[in-house]
Design goal:
Order of helices and strands: EEEEEEEEEEE
Strand content: over 45%
Shape: globular
Mean pLDDT: 96
Distance between the termini: 40 Å
Number of helices: 0
Helix content: under 10%
Radius of gyration: 13 Å
Number of strands: 11
Length: about 110
């Protein structure tokens, strides 16, 4: 069964950038939408961004529009989330998702 594995998280200062990756291991990315979600302490998991199979359609929560860019490379079985102008409120565990499959998450911490 395909597993999703995130990487690229870390500690960054406010205003900085990080690029998260989500790799499909043990298989390939399916043709379904790939989504990114985040879970911050004391909050519920929230949608961040999503991209369809061809990359022709992307979706973002309002608070990250213009700062985050979602992409995917189906040939390499990788989806990415480029995050710029990071804010302290972006601090969370970021996970990728495709249908019922979730990655383990990667921690992003933004220091102010």
């Amino acid at each position: 069964q395909v597993q999703l594995v995130e990487s690229g998280g870390g500690l960054v200062q406010a205003g900085g950038s990080l690029r998260l990756s989500c790799a499909a291991e043990g298989g390939t990315l399916s043709s379904y939408v790939m989504g990114w979600f985040r879970l911050a302490p004391g909050k519920e998991r929230e949608f961040v961004a999503a991209i369809n199979w061809s990359g022709s359609a992307t979706y973002y929560r309002d608070s990250v529009k213009g700062r985050f860019t979602v992409s995917r490379d189906n040939a390499k079985n990788i989806a990415s989330l480029q995050m710029s102008s990071l804010k302290s409120e972006d601090t969370a565990i970021y996970s990728c998702n495709q249908r019922t499959i979730w990655g383990q998450g990667t921690q992003v911490t933004v220091s102010s």
